Recover the amino acids of this structure.
């Protein structure tokens, strides 16, 4: 996936704001390898998920080990905190990442085989306050970037204790309607019936509309946790919808699950996450709760475009110094260097083009000011500084300090 200069400034703007929001809440950045041993995702993500069964890029290295390009971030973070002994640190442990990931999926708007995510993971905090914090952090990112079109949807899929009853009710419901399910969901009926609720096939969505709801089978603890979360969001002024069909596509989720969705097309989930209280122990670490989310950067940009909040390109030169003759080129270059040292975005002619071509280039680049240097300007050590926005010209000495005072 190529990100060219006319778009990369938007990514830099988003990343800068994300880092600032994460730092305000005490999250530190973690970086992890591009590929991991395949077993990490088999055990962590779940061998019944589409990611593991269909979407991972897996290969065998020269030592015969099975390795996979990372398809998601949470399992990578958990592996890292276990290996590096971070489970013994003071809790909660707060981490974030900005990374690229890989899944073999059919490319479409909002979905590509290499994609980029901002992820947040909080470990060691069992209360609904931790759930609220990560949700509010995502909300803060949207607010910082001016995105207003996202809608928060919540659900709870229960813990291992209460999910058994729900799973049995769900399996019984779908078994009676098995013939109407797509082939993929017929297989899910035996391995992971919760995933049927997340199927995008029209016939499966229609059947699932009257399926048992997770919130009706929650144990007292899960119910209290979910009500506590809703209460916190209410007090924070965050609007949300309870959506019983949100189950997320990864096996490690327990309890709270959530999505921020926007009307940006078929791939409408901009951010999704939830609680995963058994993942650390399932990968060989101590019993340690976790909650977090992943936010797709490409989909975030699509939401920003829809809301009209993409910033202007800041790379336009403050000044372009044109050369009307060969003898002026060196002076123009040296003056450009002096202006850059003062913090000014300055450019000059490097290609030996005609003055007319230079002016077209400066206009195309969006230069705010320009100066034309010729023999007369060099002799008098003065030139006309033209404001390209209003057309006014000011005579200035060929001094970086003097020019800088006017253009900045």
């Amino acid at each position: 996936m190529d990100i060219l200069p006319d778009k990369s400034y938007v990514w830099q703007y988003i990343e800068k704001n994300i880092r600032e929001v994460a730092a305000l809440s005490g999250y530190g950045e973690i970086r992890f390898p591009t590929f991991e041993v395949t077993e990490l995702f088999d055990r962590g993500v779940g061998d019944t998920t589409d990611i593991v069964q269909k979407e991972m890029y897996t290969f065998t290295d020269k030592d015969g080990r099975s390795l996979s390009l990372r398809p998601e971030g949470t399992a990578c973070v958990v592996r890292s905190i276990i290996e590096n002994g971070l489970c013994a640190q003071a809790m909660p442990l707060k981490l974030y990442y900005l990374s690229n990931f890989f899944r073999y999926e059919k490319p479409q708007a909002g979905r590509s085989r290499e994609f980029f995510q901002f992820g947040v993971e909080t470990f060691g905090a069992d209360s609904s306050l931790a759930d609220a914090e990560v949700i509010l952090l995502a909300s803060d990112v949207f607010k910082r970037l001016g995105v207003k079109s996202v809608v928060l949807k919540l659900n709870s899929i229960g813990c291992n204790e209460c999910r058994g009853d729900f799973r049995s009710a769900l399996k019984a419901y779908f078994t009676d309607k098995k013939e109407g399910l797509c082939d993929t969901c017929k297989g899910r009926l035996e391995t992971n019936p919760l995933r049927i609720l997340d199927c995008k096939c029209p016939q499966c969505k229609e059947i699932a509309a009257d399926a048992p709801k997770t919130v009706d089978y929650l144990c007292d603890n899960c119910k209290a946790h979910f009500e506590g979360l809703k209460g916190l969001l209410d007090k924070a002024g965050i609007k949300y919808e309870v959506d019983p069909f949100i189950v997320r596509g990864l096996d490690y989720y327990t309890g709270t699950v959530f999505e921020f969705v926007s009307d940006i097309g078929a791939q409408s989930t901009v951010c999704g996450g939830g609680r995963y209280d058994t993942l650390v122990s399932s990968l060989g670490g101590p019993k340690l709760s976790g909650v977090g989310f992943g936010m797709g950067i490409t989909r975030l940009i699509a939401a920003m475009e829809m809301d009209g909040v993409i910033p202007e390109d800041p790379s336009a030169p403050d000044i372009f110094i044109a050369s009307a003759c060969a003898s002026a080129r060196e002076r123009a270059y040296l003056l450009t260097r002096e202006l850059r040292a003062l913090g000014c975005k300055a450019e000059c002619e490097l290609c030996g083009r005609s003055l007319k071509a230079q002016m077209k280039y400066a206009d195309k680049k969006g230069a705010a000011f320009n100066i034309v240097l010729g023999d007369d300007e060099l002799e008098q050590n003065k030139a006309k500084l033209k404001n390209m926005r209003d057309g006014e010209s000011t005579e200035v000495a060929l001094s970086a300090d003097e020019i800088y005072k006017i253009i900045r």
Summary: The chain has a mean pLDDT of 91. The first helix runs from residue 5 to 24. Residues 320 and 362 are 6 Å apart (CA to CA). The chain has two domains: 5-159+219-307, 319-407.
